[in-house]
Specification:
This protein has 207 residues and is α+β, with helices and mostly antiparallel strands. The chain contains three helices and four strands, in the order H-H-E-E-E-E-H. The two termini are 45 Å apart.
């Protein structure tokens, strides 16, 4: 029998990539469970690629819209007025340098609904009659300045990131759980088949 010449290209035909792929595809050791494992991995990758951005976008948009609605409701009716100190803003903090300490002092302002008096934040050393711009609500009570949309945007982005991260964790957990379940089922099937075959191989059934 003549030994094949390794330099002959015809003897390397079986190593072509196409033949290798066909061999892998027709591998008799490739079980249905292996094909299922690959299929599930592909599906989960598709879910990660498509689902994560969608989950992040949906959560971020809903959170932003919700926050904007609340902000709009809270800001409704807020407006600025000019109030005046009714006393000198002194001794807010014992021994404080003028302009270096913050406290509250009484102020008064007049608008269409009449004259109002309240307390607002001032700095040490401001004199009686000093004009101070303040925000008031529809009931003429001093309130915080209106919140802007940047806070809602940050909140929405944060919610989107959290939602996408949570989805990624859930998908990863589902993948790990599937593989553990599949491995347990394959192990049980292997033990069952081995229990049937091993006595024949070891000839224990003939004793």
């Amino acid at each position: 029998m003549r030994t094949p010449d390794p330099r002959d290209p015809r003897n390397h035909r079986k190593h072509r990539p196409g033949h290798a792929r066909a061999a892998r595809k027709d591998n008799p050791l490739r079980r249905p469970a292996d094909r299922l494992r690959v299929l599930v991995n592909v599906l989960l990758i598709v879910v990660l690629i498509i689902g994560l951005p969608l989950a992040g976008w949906a959560a971020g948009t809903l959170t932003y819209d919700h926050y904007q609605g609340i902000t709009h409701s809270q800001n409704l009716g807020k407006h600025q007025v000019t109030a005046h100190l009714t006393t000198n803003a002194s001794h807010l903090v014992p021994g404080a340098v003028p302009g270096g300490a913050v406290g509250t002092a009484p102020v008064t302002w007049t608008d269409g609904s009449g004259t109002h008096t309240s307390r607002t934040v001032v700095t040490e050393g401001q004199k009686k009659g000093t004009p101070i711009r303040i925000w008031v609500d529809r009931t003429d009570r001093i309130t915080l300045p209106p919140e802007n949309s940047s806070v809602g945007l940050i909140t929405g982005v944060t919610a989107g990131i959290v939602a996408a991260s949570t989805a990624a964790v859930l998908v990863s957990g589902a993948r790990a759980g599937f593989h553990r379940s599949l491995d347990r089922r394959l192990d049980a099937q292997w033990d069952k088949e081995w229990a049937e075959v091993e006595p024949k191989w070891s000839h224990r059934s003939d004793r």
